Amino acid sequence: MDIELIQQILIAALKTGTPLLLIALGELVTEKSGVLNLGQEGMVLMGAMAGFAGAYYTGNLFLGLTLAMVAGMMMALLFGVLALSLNTSQVATGLALTIFSIGLSSFLGSSLVGSTIPGFNSIAIPLLSDIPFIGALLFNQDILIYFSFVITACTWWVLHKTRVGLTIRSVGENPHSANALGIKVIKIRYLATIFGGAMAGMAGAYLSLSYTPMWMENMSAGRGWIALALVVFASWRVGYLMLGAYLFGIASILHLVMQGFGFDISPNLLAMMPYLATLIVMVLISSDSLKQKLSTPMSLSKPFDPKLH
């Protein structure tokens, strides 16, 4: 395997892993606040549809990106009203949101199925893009990939180095103590949930405006579910999350790589690997003892009513 081939595989993994990273970052912040939103898959689809429709009808990719994020935030807000204000089951509400969004995105985007547009182009950073091997890998990508690097670093810094991050983590660990200190628990959870929706919407925009600049039904292909498992797989740590996203990216293209090398293995078997890994992780985290080892936020998915405290 020569260096150029390795470089191309890593570039493909970077592109494939970016939407997973964006979704998972939003879900990580959401879960750090104690909210479990299983509606990520639906929010990604709504973002992809809204982003593509906006860019298709206006010719402006950045307007499409903005609309995608707004669509994700609106779906997250709907989840918040039901799960945070009305105290419905977070698990059931998230699943319902995904089912609703899959149907709504298909209905609203039915006239655009198969349509294409010119997507975001790669932007080579002067000098840095000329560095051997890593230049093309890290410094000759589209603006959404660059943004994913920035937002990952910012998320780590905010969660671990700022008062805002401490507040988010305190709400997720012990909302009763946080409430006693005067922290608006529900407000913080709303903001974290809406941030998760914005990231899911951006991931959807990446799929329909950059990765494959077109609209097709269910184009998220289960990435929202993979990202949910990825958060747990990374033990709610931003650094591991980034690494895990790109590892899942490699797993997603593994069947193409193996076929290229002539391995006599069913491509369908290899293509299912990311989803099999997701299923295994979900089964393992059902163990309470493992949850503690993985540093699960103590109040994750537990409702909180400030009127009762």
TrEMBL record:
It comes from the Bacteria. Keywords: Cell membrane, Membrane, Transmembrane, Transmembrane helix. It is a multi-pass membrane protein. It is found in: Cell inner membrane. The chain crosses the membrane at residues 6-26, 38-57, 63-84, 91-113, 133-159, 190-209, 245-263, 269-290. PANTHER family: ABC TRANSPORTER PERMEASE PROTEIN, SUGAR ABC TRANSPORTER INTEGRAL MEMBRANE PROTEIN-RELATED. This is ABC transporter permease. It comes from Psychromonas arctica.
